[in-house]
Amino acid sequence: xxxxxIVLLVSLAYLLLLFCIAYYGDKRADAGRSLIANPYIYTLSxxxxxxxxxxxxxxxxxxxxxxxxxxxYLGPTLAALLWWQVLRKIVRISRVHRITxxxxxxxxxxxxxxFLAGLVTVIAVVGIMPYISLQLKAVSVSxxxxxxxxxxxxxxxxxxxxxxxxxxxxxxxxxxxFAILYGTRHIDATERHExxxxxxxxxxxxxxxxxxxxxxxxxxxxxDGFGDLFSQAMAAGYERLTVFEAVPGGYAAWLAITFLSMCxxxxxxxxxxxxxxENVNEDHIRTAAWLFxxxxxxxxxxxxxxxxxxxxxxxxxxxxxxxxVLAIPIAEQAWALAxxxxxxxxxxxxxMVIVASIAxxxxxxxxxxxxxxxxxxxxxxxxxxxxxxLLIAIRRGGIxxxxxxxxMYYRLIGESYALVSIGLVSFAAAAQFAPAIxxxxxxxxxxxxxxxxxxxxxxxxxxxxxxxxxxxxxxxxDSRILIEGPxxxxxxxxxxxxxxxxxxxxxxxxxxxxxxxxxxxxxVSMFSRASALEQVxxxxxxxxxxxxxxxxxxxxxxGTARLDELRDLLSRxxxxxxxxxxxxHHAPDGEVAVSVDPSVVNEAxxxxxxxxxxxxxxxxxxxxxxxxxxxxxxxxxxxxETSQILDYSRRLEDKQQALQRAGRDxxxxxxxxxxxxxxxxxxxxxxTHELRTPLxxxxxxxxxxxxxPDVDPAQRTEFLSIIxxxxxxxxxxxxxxxxxxKIESGRAEWNxxxxxxxxxxxxxxxxxxxxxxxAHVTLExxxxxxxxxxxxxxxxxMQVVIxxxxxxxxxxxxxxxxxxxxxxxxxxxxxxxxxxxxxxxNPQHQPLIFERFHQVTEKRSGKPKGxxxxxxxxxxxMERHQGRIWVESEPGRGATFLVELPGLI
Amino acid sequence: xxxxxxxxxxxxxxxxxxxxxxxxxxxxxxxxxxTLFLFGFLALNYPLVSLFSGGMVFGLPLLFVYLFTVWLLxxxxxxxxxxxxxxxxxxxxxxxxxxxD
Lengths: 905, 101
Description:
The complex is a heterodimer.
Chain A: H1 2-30, H2 39-46, H3 52-65, H4 71-81, H5 86-96, H6 102-109, H7 114-147, H8 161-183, H9 194-222, H10 225-235, H11 250-267, H12 269-277, H13 284-300, H14 303-313, H15 324-331, H16 335-375, H17 388-412, H18 419-430, H19 433-442, H20 448-473, H21 480-483, H22 505-526, H23 532-542, H24 544-547, E1 561-562, H25 563-574, H26 576-586, E2 595-596, H27 598-612, H28 614-624, H29 632-707, H30 713-745, E3 752-756, H31 757-775, E4 778-782, E5 789-793, H32 794-811, E6 818-826, E7 829-836, H33 870-880, E8 884-889, E9 895-902
Parallel strand pairs in A: 4-6
Antiparallel strand pairs in A: 1-2, 3-5, 6-7, 7-9, 8-9
Helix pairs in contact in A: 1-7, 1-9, 2-9, 2-13, 3-14, 3-16, 4-11, 4-13, 6-7, 6-19, 7-8, 7-16, 7-17, 7-18, 7-20, 8-16, 8-17, 9-14, 9-16, 10-14, 11-12, 11-18, 11-22, 12-16, 14-15, 15-16, 16-17, 16-28, 20-22, 23-29, 25-26, 25-27, 27-28, 29-30, 30-33, 31-32, 32-33
Chain B: E1 3-7, E2 13-18, H1 22-43, E3 56-57, E4 60-61, H2 62-82
Antiparallel strand pairs in B: 1-2, 3-4
Helix pairs in contact in B: 1-2
C-alpha cells in the first residue's frame, strides 16, 4: 500500500508545480512581459480539448470500435480550417464588446437579454456536468489502478463502491481548491487568466509527452514496430476492428459525431474561454488553425497500437479497455512509466476541470447570481461601496458547485458508462450554442425570441433524449419509459422519438435537437419583430469589421450621467484602482462632478460588462443615467451616419494621397523647368557672346575699309579675306546652334538604318583628306577590310566622325602633326578612335569638353578654334544611337577620342 | 507599384510579383480554406471512406492509413496557406468581404 502514498505525493507535487507555473505567468503578466503572447502557447492551451477522454477513453473506444474514436479529432481539424473566418470574427466581437463568456456573447447579441444569459448558463452548467464527472472518474480509477501496483487489479464493477466514490469526492474537492486558488484571485475587467493559460499549455505538453512515451514503449518495446503489432492483432482475429462497420451507428453516427466535435471545439465553455477570451492576438488563430490539428494527430498516433496491444495482452476482457494505457505498463512492471502515464492522465483531467470550472463559475456569477441579487432591492447591493469581495465569493462558490455537480453525476450515472459515451453527452449540449452564435454573427434578422425558442427547444430535446435515458439506465427512473415511452406513448420513446429508429442514441439526439434548435431560431426569428436594441446589436455583431474602428458598441444612451456616479459604480464592481484609471482618463483636471457625454457612459458599461456580464451591466448603468435608451430610428441613423462618414473619410484619404502624389510630381516638374530655364539663359548668353566675336571683327575690318578707301590692295585683300572667314565662322556657328537645338528638342529627324561603318569611315576620310593635306598632318588609318554593320543615321554618324577628324587636325601638333584613326569591330561592340599628338586635355577638363560652348582655350594663341558645339552635338548623336563618346588623354601627350556603338552581328 | 520580391541567400531574385492588398489576400485565404474544408469533409465521410474500409497496406490496416494520410494532408495544406502568425503584415482595415444581407 505504500504505492498509494507515493502516487498521492507525486500528484500533489505535480499540482504544486502547476501552481508555481501559473503564479509565475501571472507575475510576468503583471510586469507587462507576457509569456503567453505567442501562437504556440495559444495552440498548446487550446489542446485542453484533449482531456482524460483522449488520454484513457480513446483507447477504450478504439478497442471496441476501431476508428470510431477518431472523428472526435477529425471534426476539430475540419472546424479549424474555418477558424480564420469564424473564430476571428467571434474574437473581434468579443474584444469590441468586452465579452467574457458564451452566455455573455449570446445575451449581448440578442439585446443584452438577462433571461437568455441565464438560460445559456443553465445549459452550460448542466451540459458540462457529465464531462466533469468523466474527468473525476478517470482520475479516481487511474489512481485506484496505479496504487495497486505491482498487482494489476481492476476496480470492481462500480469503481470500488463507496470507497471509489470517496476518492472521486476527494479528487473533486482538491481540484476545486486548486481552481479557486488560481482562478479567482482577483476580479479583472477582461477576465483574462494568463497564469492559468500558461499552466494549461504546460499540461498539454505533459500529457502529449506521457502518451507518446507509453505509445512508443508499447509499439517498439513490447512489439517490433507497427507492422509487427498489427500483424499479430490480425492473426488474433481483430480484423473486425479495421473495417468501418466496427463504428457503432455506421456512417450516420460518424457524421453526427464529426459535427458535434466541430461545434464542441469552439463552444465548450473551456474552449471558448481559451480560444476567445484568452486570445491576445487575432493573428495567432492563423497558426493555431493548423498547429492544433497537428497536435491532435500526434497525440492520436498511438491510440490504435495501444488498443490492439491491450487486446492482445489481456485477451479475455479481464481489464477494462479504458485503462489499457495504464494497465499495460503495470503489467510489464514498468513503474516509472506507469507513474508518468498517471501524471499525464492527471494533467489531461485537471486542465479541463480547472478551465471549465473557472469559466462556468464566471458565468454563474455574472449571468445567474448577480442579476438576481441586483434585482432584489432588499439587499441594497447598489449602496454597498465595494462589491468585488462579493463577486469573488460567488465565483468560488460557483467552482465548488460545478465540481460537486460533476461528482453527483458521477455517483448517479457515471459508473456504468464508458468515458467516451459520457463525454459525447456534453458535446451534444455544447453544440446547442452553435446555432445561436454562428447564425447570430452572420444573419442580422436572428432575434431574441428566436434564440430563446431555439435554445430552449434544443436543450429540452437534449435532456429528453440523452440526459434522461442516462438516469433511466442507472436505475433512478423507471426503465419502462425507455421501452414503452412515457405513459405508454410509444411515439415519445426517448431513444426513438416520433418513431425515428435505426439511429444510435447520439445521432438520434443530435438530429432532433439540432432540428428543433436551428428550426426554432430561424422560423421564430422570421415571424417575430426585433426590438430596437436587438436590431442595433445585430448590426454591431454582423458588421463588426465595419464598426470595429469605434472602441465600443453603439451610442445607446440619450441622456447623460455624472462622472462621479459612474466612477462609484465602477469601483464597486471592478475595484477602486481601475475605476480611478477610468475617471482620470476622462477628467484629467480632477473635476468629477460633471456630466459626461453618452460615449463615456457607453465605455463605462463595457468595462462593467467585463466584470458582471452585459445584461447586469446594462441594468446597473441605467440606474445612474438620466435619460433613456434611444429609439430605433435614432440609433439606426447614428449607425448609418457613422458608416457613411467612415466611407467618406476613407475616400477622402485616397483622394488626399492622390493629390499628394500629384503635388510631388508637379514640384519635380517645376524644378526641372527652372533648371531648363537657367540652362536656356546660359545658352542664350553664350550664343550671343559667341556670335559677337566674329561680328565684332567683321564690323571692325569693314569700318577700316570703309573709312580708308586708299588702303593698299594687298592689305585690302587680307582684310576682306578675314571678313569672309569670320562670316563663314558665323554661318557655321549659327548652323550648329540650330542643329543642336533641333537635336536637343527632339525635333531632329533620324533616319535609322543598317549601315556599314567601314564604308562610312572611308567616306569621311576621303572628305577630310584635303584638310589633312593643307595642315601637313600625317594620317595613319587602321580600318578593317570587312564590313562592320551598325544601326544608325548615316549623315549624323558621318557628322560625328568628321567633327572628330577636323578637331584632330585643329589640335594636333602644329609642326609635326600626326593623327591615327581606327575602327574596331568586335561582335556587338564597335569602336572608333581618333588620336592626335596635340597638347592633350587636362583631366579636369575632360568631362567638360562635351558640354556646349565649352572650349579649352589654347594658352598659346588664346583664341578658340571651334564653335564649342561640335562635341556636344556628337554626344547627343551618340546618345541617340545608344552609344557613348569619351576622351582619354594626358596633358602634353595628345588625346584620343573614342566612340562606341552597339554593333549588329 | 508595390511588389513582393523573393531573393535567394545569394541575392538572386527568385520570384517577383505585385504585392496583393490585404483584401485580396483575405479573399484568397477564405477561398482556399473553405475549399480545403470541403475537401476534408468529403474525404473523411461516407461514401469516400467506405472505399477504404478493410484490407491492409504496407502491413497496416488500409482504413487507418487512409484516415491518417488525409488528415495529415489537410493539416499540411492548411499550414501552407495560413503560415505562422506574424509572418505577413496584418491587414490594415480588417475588412472582411461579407456577403451581407
